[in-house]
Structures are given as C-alpha cells and as structure tokens.
Amino acid sequence: MPLITTKTSTAISKEKEEILKAKFGKAIELINKSESWLMIDFQENCHLWFKGDEAPSAMIEVDLFGKATESGYDALTKAITDIVSDELGISPDRIYVKYNEINHWGYSGFNF
After folding, report:
1. Domains in the chain, CATH or no CATH each
2. pTM of the entire structure?
3. Which segments of the chain are extended strands (E)?
4. If 0-12 CB within 10 Å is exposed, 13-18 middle and 19+ buried, where does residue 14 land?
C-alpha cells in the first residue's frame, strides 16, 4: 500500500503524469510492493524554495505500510531521482525523497 506524493515547482502535463505513473509503478517493485496497490499524487507548480532559491526542485514522499530494507530504500531513491530528473528536467541535487513507514493503514472499511 504505497503512496507516492510528488511535489514539484514545475508543471506536469497529463502525458508526463502517465509516464511517471508507469515508471513509479515499476520502481516500487524495488521495495517489494506492487503497482496494483500503488496510489500516486501529483502536486505541480508548488512554491518550493531550496538552497535559497526557486530553481526547479521536487519533494517526493513515499508512504508505505510496513518497512523496506535499507538496500531497497537506496535503490528506490536512485530510481525515483532518475525518473523525476529525466522526465521533469529537475537536477538530481534539487530532489529530496522522504520515506514514511506506517504501522496502521485502513482500506475498504478495515485496517491491515
């Protein structure tokens, strides 16, 4: 049950959303999760200041039920950074990736 939230100071076209969705769906397998449970939230044109300026930047948050391995997190961070950089033209040194491990996650009227 992962959720990937992408906040970026740039615009994201519908075409880019589709590409990001597909690539995130594949990348999430690096932490043994599947696209069939993946939810994605795109927040474009955010007012993000990073390193003292407003140059294009992104904050990616990955919420997941349970935990992943350190090597899984490392691999996913690399994949997400590469995807966002390639598709949105944001320099890798202006992208943060944050992970939130969640113990209680509700779905369809019950909790896992």
Report:
1. 3-106 (3.30.429.10)
2. 0.94
3. 3-8, 39-43, 58-65, 95-102, 106-107, 110-111
4. exposed
